[in-house]
Amino acid sequence: MLNLWLAEVRGILLGQPIPEVNWIALALAAALGALLTLLIPMLLPRLWGVLRRMVGVLRA
Q1: Count of domains forming the chain
Q2: Does residue 2 lie within any of the structural domains?
Q3: What span, in angstroms and rounded, lies between the C-alpha atoms of 14 and 37?
Q4: What does pTM read for this prediction?
Q5: Beta carbons within 10 angstroms of residue 4's beta carbon
Q6: Domain annotation covers residue 59
Q7: CA 53, CA 59: separation in Å to the nearest integer?
């Protein structure tokens, strides 16, 4: 992925960008990655509590 990005930057600098790069998909993937990076630390304690309660119910 990094090689493709570097090739694209080099192509833009030389005036020959790579046409097969799907920039919309790349932007969506980056946005999803950023969103997951922000959400996982917030959701992890809540999920951990749910798992502990489920295990407690199973033990009882």
Answers
A1: 1
A2: no
A3: 34
A4: 0.43
A5: 12
A6: yes
A7: 10
pLDDT value of residue 17: 65
Residue 52 in domain? yes
Question: Whole domain around residue 57: which residue ranges?
Answer: 23-60
Average pLDDT for consecutive 10-residue bins of the chain (60 residues)? 70 70 81 90 87 82
HEC profile for the chain?
Answer: CHHHHHHHHHHHHHCCCCCCCCHHHHHHHHHHHHHHHHHHHHHHHHHHHHHHHHHHHHHC
In the chain, the amino acid numbered 60 is A
Longest dimension (CA), the chain: 69
